[in-house]
């Protein structure tokens, strides 16, 4: 099953007894770029949070490139890149300090060059020594794009990556993540929740639409549903 | 990931925690100010002129340390949680134990800084020899002991509304052995009682117990 | 016969057994047991006091074991069981403290004494009250809260020997007010009554614990049913 990047089987999550995610089964092939659509409260964020190992599911199972998400192994965590709804940055650090720490944690080789390259690509290299706390939402989001790519992940789990970005920022986002344009290694699998449906056609190879925690429409094969 | 890389990463993380604590001092300054105010309030309330405060000093010092320390460490993961850093660390390949140890060590170092400064101030205020090597040792062991537990308890996001109030309610009953041992050791050190040795032993025992159990439990709390 | 089947028998076995034992205990403690020569009838509190203390330890052990099982299995029924047992433990701790003070007043001349056992019991009461406050202040099926509280219950339980030891050192290394040292060894008759009382109260505690656990499990079910009802209503509208 090596060609499957993300695979969930009857994945369920309940809050106060209410299912936020109700028996969701999806299979996403390696290298595809899938848009996760749906209204607020449809379960998009819950799905992404479980896949990024931050939330325990109430039932069912999920695998990323063969690794069981519930086991939270180091190997799994090394291959996922995550952008959550909220930026995950040290407010009183500079981008360089923040990325250097995480480069160390992920043991990124040639980290200085990698950081410089990424910060230049997201066009905030000139802000490298400013405090992140003084950044605008869009600037933070650009930094998050760089941070999520730092360790060259194979699977990207993105929760509304467009937040705060201007036209220029959206172009950067498309180039770096959604279009897989970063040179080198194998194509990256992307699962991105989004409300910008008019943009989906430009980057996605398929979509999944959730409503009340269930899949109501998808371009993915339904064999295993 | 092997131990030596884990240690290296832990060192980096400790460094980051300290840098963060140093740059955003509000929390720690508030804790320090709380301790100073409480110390002054105690000395007013117990009326310095009677001279009785000398006997009460060990108890006063340790209740002040515990309240301000738990208050300060209770917020320590709050900040990381609010700006998403805790999530970023949790999804990274770093071991949860490393996250916990780095945060606890940073808390211990910041608290020791505050407590030593307080001891120096109290030496002047109460004209008691409070800045002795023996007392500093007692304070260091005790601080490691209670910070290990309070950092563990602060790590998990309970109800945001009463989280701040709940922490002392949860932590203080567990800390009774520490309080008894440290107060007794302190008064023995000030020659009000005989023998610091058994109390330092009890204090060390509690500290080893709390550090071991908190380190083992933290990954489960994740 | 597996464990589940034995547990199913609780409604048939525990209430009648506990009831009979309680009646027997009352008769033995009030009538059969001889009156203590020095302390008088107040000494009969022993037959409630000591068993209550043991029952509370029993209940808190159940909480600790269930908390460990919850952390291992992540099954919410263990969380419910831990909570149910903690409530019963608190009731018996309170009973121990109250009977202890009532007994202490005529004998020691004070209601309260910082004796190692009393102090440990009081702190036990505080720890498990804090446990319940923390657990009840968040949602029943919040796994974060359940995990946190399980950890807290385990730490609290493991803290008991340390608390007891430290309070004992603290009291023995200090000059103590002179209190009458009474009944070094209980006469055989009293001992038998005491043992029977322990058995009776433990049975009652076991029954209470099953009731407490059942209540918590039903609350869990109620939560789920409410949620389903809510979905149905919102789908109709």
Structure, explained:
- The complex is a heterotrimer of chains A (225), B (222) and C (237).
- Chain A has 225 residues and is of the alpha/beta class.
- In chain A, 30% of the residues lie in helices and 27% in strands.
- Chain A has helices at 44-51, 74-79, 95-105, 111-121, 137-149, 167-178, 197-203, and strands at 4-15, 18-24, 27-29, 33-37, 59-64, 67-68, 80-83, 155-159, 189-193, 206-211, 214-218.
- Chain A has a 6-stranded mixed sheet with strand order 7-8-9-4-10-11, sandwiched between helices. In chain A, strands 1, 2, 3, 5 and 6 form a 5-stranded antiparallel sheet that branches.
- The longest helix of chain A is centred in the middle third of the chain and has 13 residues, at 137-149.
- Chain A starts with a strand and ends in a 7-residue tail after the last strand.
- The model of chain A has no long low-confidence stretch (mean pLDDT 86).
- Chain B is an all-alpha fold.
- The radius of gyration of chain B is 18 Å and the shape is globular.
- Chain B has one domain.
- In chain C, helix 3 (46-73) runs antiparallel to helix 4, helix 4 (76-108) runs antiparallel to helix 7 and helix 5 packs antiparallel against helix 6.
- Residues 177-182 of chain C have low confidence and may be disordered.
- Chain C has one domain (19-31, 39-174, 185-236).
- Chain C is globular.
- The interface between B and C is medium-sized, with 30 and 28 residues.
Question: How would you briefly describe this protein structure?
Answer:
The complex is a heterotrimer of chains A (225), B (222) and C (237). Helix content of chain A is 30%, strand content 27%.
Outline the secondary-structure elements.
The complex is a heterotrimer of chains A (225), B (222) and C (237).
Chain A: E1 4-15, E2 18-24, E3 27-29, E4 33-37, H1 44-51, E5 59-64, E6 67-68, H2 74-79, E7 80-83, H3 95-105, H4 111-121, H5 137-149, E8 155-159, H6 167-178, E9 189-193, H7 197-203, E10 206-211, E11 214-218
Parallel strand pairs in A: 4-9, 4-10, 7-8, 8-9
Antiparallel strand pairs in A: 1-2, 1-3, 1-5, 5-6, 10-11
Chain B: H1 3-23, H2 26-45, H3 53-74, H4 76-82, H5 85-90, H6 96-126, H7 133-154, H8 163-174, H9 176-189, H10 197-221
Helix pairs in contact in B: 1-6, 2-3, 2-6, 3-6, 3-7, 3-8, 3-9, 6-7, 6-10, 7-8, 7-9, 7-10, 9-10
Chain C: H1 3-8, H2 10-32, H3 46-73, H4 76-108, H5 116-136, H6 143-172, H7 188-236
Helix pairs in contact in C: 2-7, 3-4, 3-6, 3-7, 4-5, 4-7, 5-6
């Amino acid at each position: 099953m090596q060609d499957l990047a993300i695979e969930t089987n009857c994945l369920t999550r309940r809050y106060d007894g209410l299912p936020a995610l109700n028996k969701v089964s999806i299979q996403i092939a390696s290298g595809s770029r899938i848009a996760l659509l749906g209204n607020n409260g449809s379960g998009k964020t819950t799905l992404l949070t479980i896949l990024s190992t931050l939330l325990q599911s109430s039932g069912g199972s999920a695998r990323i490139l063969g690794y069981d998400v519930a086991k939270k192994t180091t190997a799994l965590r090394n291959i996922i890149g995550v952008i959550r709804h909220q930026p995950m940055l040290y407010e009183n650090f500079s981008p360089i300090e923040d990325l250097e720490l995480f480069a160390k944690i992920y043991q990124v080789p040639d980290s200085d060059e990698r950081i410089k390259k990424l910060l230049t690509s997201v066009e905030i290299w000139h802000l490298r020594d400013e405090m992140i706390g003084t950044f605008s939402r869009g600037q933070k989001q650009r930094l998050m794009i760089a941070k999520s790519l730092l360790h060259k992940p194979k699977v990207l789990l993105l929760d509304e990556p467009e937040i705060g970005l201007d036209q220029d920022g959206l172009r950067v986002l498309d180039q770096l993540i959604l279009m897989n344009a970063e040179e080198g290694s194998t194509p990256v699998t992307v699962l991105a929740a989004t409300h910008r449906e008019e943009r989906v056609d430009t980057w996605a190879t398929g979509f999944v639409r959730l409503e009340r925690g269930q899949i109501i429409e998808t371009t993915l094969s339904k064999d295993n549903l | 990931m092997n131990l030596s890389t884990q240690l290296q990463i832990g060192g980096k993380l400790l460094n980051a925690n300290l840098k963060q604590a140093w740059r955003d001092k509000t929390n720690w300054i508030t804790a320090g100010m709380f301790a100073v105010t409480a110390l002054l309030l105690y000395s007013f309330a117990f009326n310095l002129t009677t001279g009785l405060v000398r006997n009460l000093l060990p108890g006063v010092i340790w209740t002040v340390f515990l309240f301000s320390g738990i208050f300060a460490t209770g917020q320590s993961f709050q900040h990381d949680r609010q700006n998403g850093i805790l999530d970023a660390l949790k999804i990274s390949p770093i071991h949860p134990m490393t996250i916990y140890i780095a945060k606890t060590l940073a808390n211990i170092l910041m608290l020791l800084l505050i407590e030593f400064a307080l001891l120096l101030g109290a030496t002047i205020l109460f004209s008691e020899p409070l800045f002795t090597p023996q007392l500093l040792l007692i304070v260091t062991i005790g601080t490691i002991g209670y910070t290990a537990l309070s950092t563990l308890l602060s790590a998990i996001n309970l109800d945001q509304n009463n989280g701040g109030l709940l922490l002392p309610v949860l932590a203080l009953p567990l800390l009774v052995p520490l309080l008894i041992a440290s107060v007794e050791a302190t008064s023995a050190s000030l020659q009000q009682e005989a023998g610091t040795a058994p109390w330092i032993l009890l204090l060390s025992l509690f500290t080893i117990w709390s550090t071991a159990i908190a380190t083992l439990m933290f990954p489960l709390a994740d | 016969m597996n464990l589940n089947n034995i547990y199913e028998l609780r409604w048939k076995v525990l209430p009648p057994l506990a009831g009979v034992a309680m009646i027997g205990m009352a008769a033995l403690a009030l009538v059969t047991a001889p009156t203590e020569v020095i302390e008088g009838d107040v000494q009969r509190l022993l037959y409630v006091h000591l068993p209550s203390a043991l029952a509370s330890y029993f209940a808190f052990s159940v909480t600790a074991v269930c908390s460990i099982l919850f952390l291992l299995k992540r099954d919410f029924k263990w969380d419910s069981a831990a909570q149910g047992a903690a409530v019963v433990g608190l009731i018996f701790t309170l009973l121990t403290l109250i009977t202890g003070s009532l007994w202490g007043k005529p004998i020691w001349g004070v209601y309260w004494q910082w004796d190692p056992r009393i102090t440990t019991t009081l702190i036990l009461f505080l720890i498990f009250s804090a446990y319940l406050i923390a657990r009840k202040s968040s949602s029943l099926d919040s796994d974060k809260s359940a995990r946190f509280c399980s950890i807290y219950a385990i730490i609290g339980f493991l803290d008991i020997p340390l608390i007891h030891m430290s309070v004992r050192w603290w009291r023995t290394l200090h000059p103590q007010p002179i209190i009458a040292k009474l009944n070094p060894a209980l006469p055989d008759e009293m001992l038998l009554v005491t043992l029977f009382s322990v058995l009776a109260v433990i049975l009652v505690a076991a029954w209470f614990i099953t009731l407490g656990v059942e209540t918590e499990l039903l609350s869990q079910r109620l939560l789920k049913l409410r949620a389903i009802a809510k979905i149905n209503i919102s789908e109709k509208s």
